[in-house]
From TrEMBL:
Residue numbers spanned by region Interaction with substrate tRNA: 39-42, 163-167
Description of how the protein assembles with itself and partners: Monomer.
EC number: 2.5.1.75
Keywords: ATP-binding, Magnesium, Nucleotide-binding, Transferase, tRNA processing
Source organism per UniProt: Winogradskyella pacifica
Gene name as annotated: miaA
Sites where the protein binds substrate: 16-21
SUPFAM superfamilies cross-referenced by the UniProt entry: P-loop containing nucleoside triphosphate hydrolases (SSF52540)
Lineage of the species this protein comes from: Bacteria, Pseudomonadati, Bacteroidota, Flavobacteriia, Flavobacteriales
Binding annotation for ATP: 14-21
HAMAP family xref list: IPP_trans
Alphabetized InterPro entries for the sequence: Dimethylallyltransferase (IPR039657), IPT (IPR018022), P-loop_NTPase (IPR027417)
GO molecular function list: ATP binding; tRNA dimethylallyltransferase activity
Name of the featured protein: tRNA dimethylallyltransferase
Length: 305
């Protein structure tokens, strides 16, 4: 009997603004493959500029999936993404043994490559109580509570996302154990092998690239995009860096100059958390963001063989 050929997912990860999209397109073109986006901010069709959705030219350079396929009004969880992405990858593997996946949302990448961790059921009243605290006192006291109960989770989850903070807190409170203790790293069986490529740079270079990207977003019309979304600002999808700071400006809580500086600061913090998350994965091979594409393809070819 002939051996069934191995299927592969090439996962491109790293901090925001590092060049993951450009690399993913080059790899998809080289392997005549298609791209799965694992960027949870790019799922929503109403958010394009502030989430750095690939340009029309980039989208036409290689087939993309999970880009602007949902509305901000639709609920789309990481579990939903896991199921749909695995199904799509299995379909794509019928045509080509290689699929490229790209994204900076660590939990979404992990959901596809390794599967999600199991969390026990906890009393629904805990979440209700935490939501009430959020409504009455804001996010900062909840962040501080998580910092006390689970410092590791505080440093790795999307700490500016109330839903993630409340999820971690309800597990801490409901089980009397840290949320992070349930991150078992036990992997689900997948019908493919993952080759993980990380892009990085010196921190100052990452921060410079972020600052430049924010300036480009503003020049490309981020203010107009955010203003149109202001009526929906309470939706979870819009509790996102680049939008919430401008919502505060529109409502007279800050100047435009301050809002833009906050977008840059909060994006830099996000990049730092991304690196903290990805650096814990020993399976990732890291390359400088300026590495020649041939060197990366050579590494992938070696892994495939």
């Amino acid at each position: 009997m002939s051996k069934t050929p191995q299927n592969f997912v090439i996962a491109i990860v790293g901090p925001t603004a590092i060049g993951k999209t450009a690399l993913s397109i080059k790899l998809a073109q080289h392997f005549n493959s298609e791209i799965i986006s694992a960027d949870s901010r790019q799922f929503f069709k109403e958010m394009a500029i502030g989430t750095a959705v690939p340009s029309k030219e980039e989208l036409s350079a290689a087939p993309h999936h999970f880009i602007q396929h949902k509305s901000i009004k639709e609920y789309f969880s990481v579990g939903d993404f896991e199921r749909e992405a695995i199904s799509k990858i299995n379909d794509l593997h019928q045509k080509n043994p290689i699929v490229v996946m790209v994204g900076g949302s660590g939990l979404y990448v992990k959901a596809v490559t390794k599967g999600l961790d199991y969390f026990p059921e906890v009393d629904a009243n805990i979440r209700e109580n935490l939501n009430l605290q959020l409504e009455n006192s804001g996010l900062i006291p909840l962040q501080e509570q998580l910092k006390t109960l689970d410092f590791e989770a505080y440093n790795t989850i999307a700490i500016d996302n109330p839903q993630r903070v409340i999820r971690a807190l309800e597990i801490c409170i409901g089980t009397a154990k840290p949320y992070s203790s349930f991150l078992t790293n036990s992997e689900k069986n997948r019908e493919f092998k993952t080759i993980s490529i990380g892009l990085s740079a010196d921190r100052s270079m990452i921060y410079d690239r972020i600052n430049q990207r924010v300036d480009i977003m503003i020049a490309n019309g981020l203010l107009e995009e955010a203003k149109a979304l202001l009526p929906h600002k309470d939706l979870n999808a819009l509790n996102t860096v680049g939008y919430k700071e401008l919502f505060a400006y529109f409502e007279g809580e800050s100047t435009l100059e301050f809002a833009i500086s906050e977008i840059k600061k909060n994006t830099r913090r996000f990049a730092k958390r991304q690196l903290t998350w990805f650096r814990k994965d020993d399976a990732i091979t890291w390359f400088d963001y300026e590495t020649n594409i041939e060197a990366i393809i050579s590494h992938i070819d070696t892994q495939i063989k």
